[in-house]
Amino acid sequence: MILPGLTDIHTHMREPGGTEKEDWSSGTAAALAGGITTILAMPNTNPPTINRETLGIALKIAKIGARCDYGLFLGAGETNAEELPNIAKDAVGLKMYLDQTFGPLKLDSLNARLDHFRNWPRHKIISIHAEKDNIMSSILLAGMFDRPIHICHVSLKDEIEMIKAAKENGIKITCEVTPHHLFICREDIAGREKEFEVRPHIAERSDMNALWENMDVIDAIATDHAPHTPAEKSSDNPPPGFPGLETSLPLMLTAVNDGRMKMENLIEKMYTNPNRIFGIPTQPDTEIEVDTEASWEIRGKDMFTKAAWSPFEGWKVKGRVIKVILRGKEVFSNGKILVEPGYGLNIAKKEEV
Length: 353
Ligand code: NCD
Ligand code: ZN
Fold this sequence. Notes:
With about 350 residues, this protein is of the alpha/beta class. The protein is about 30% helix and about 20% strand. The protein contains eleven helices and 13 strands. The strands form two sheets. Strands 2-3-4-5-6-7-8-9 form an eight-stranded parallel β-sheet. A five-stranded antiparallel β-sheet has the order 1-10-11-12-13. The longest helix has 16 residues. The protein binds N-carbamoyl-L-aspartate and zinc ion. Zinc ion binds next to loops.
C-alpha cells in the first residue's frame, strides 16, 4: 500500500549537547525507517534553542545532519519573549513547557507566559507541554488571546474531555497523543515503572481507553521520540522519555489491522492534520510503501535510533515500512537507509513573512 510521507510533530534530536542519545544523522535515519519524512524538533537540547545564537547553532547542525525534512521549535523562556518574534521565520513554532520534564525550559512566570502569547507571530502555532490543570490555563490563554494552541501528548481522560469541551466551545485548540499512551497502561508495567519513566507518566487503563473513545478529538499521533541511552534508562534515576520514531507507524498499522482504527484516520492524524496545523508544505514526489500484511517483532537493537531500546520490545506488530521516496529520491528500502545526512530541508524556510 502506498501512503504519503508522514510528519512527526514532536521529536527530540538531542543535538547539540546529547549526541550519546541521538544526533541528527541517527535520528532522521530512524524517522525514515519509520515512514516519517518530516520531523519537528523540540528545543530542549543543550544549549536549548531559545535565541538567535542557539537557533543559529541548531539550524547549522540540522542542515548538515538531516536525512529527512525538518522544522525547529523555539523554546519559550523567562526572558526571550521580546526577541523570539525577530527570529521566528526560521522556526516552525514556539514550544512552551508548563510542566517539569527533561531539560531546563519549564516556564513558571505568568508574566512571561502572557508576553509570549502577546508577541509570538500569530500565523505560527504555540505547542504546549501542559498536564492536568495546566491544560485549563492554556485553554484560557488561547481564549484570551484568540489564537491557536496545540497541546502535546495528552494522556488522561480528564484532559481529552477538557479539550473536547474547549473545541466544542470555539477555542482554537488541537492536540496530539503518543502511541505509548495509546498502547501501554500502568498495569502493564507493574514493577517496571522506573524503566518506563516518561512525561506525561503512563496512565491508568481507564485513561488509555478514554483516548481511544475520543479518537475524533485527537488531531495528531506524535511520537514524542525522546531517546535516552539504555544505561541511563536502567540507572537509579532514569531520565523520562521513550524512542518512538520506528514503532509509531507499525503500531498504528496494527491498530488498523485489528479494526481499532480506519486507515483514513491514520493518514489524517499522521499526515494531513499535522501538516495543516503547522503549515507544512507538501513534499513533491514523496510517498512511502508499506506492507500491511507483514508481521514482525519489535527489537530495539535492530533500530537506527542510538537509544537502541524500545518500550515495545518483543511486541508483535503487523505492518512494515518497505520503501520511502522523499522528493523523488529513494531514501529507504528494505531495511537500508539510502540517503546521506544533508539531504533534509528546513520546511520553515520557505514561508518567510
Ligand atoms: C522528553 C525528553 O526527554 O526530552 N521526555 C519525555 O518524557 N517525554 C521531554 C518531553 O517531551 O516532555
Ligand atoms: Zn517531548
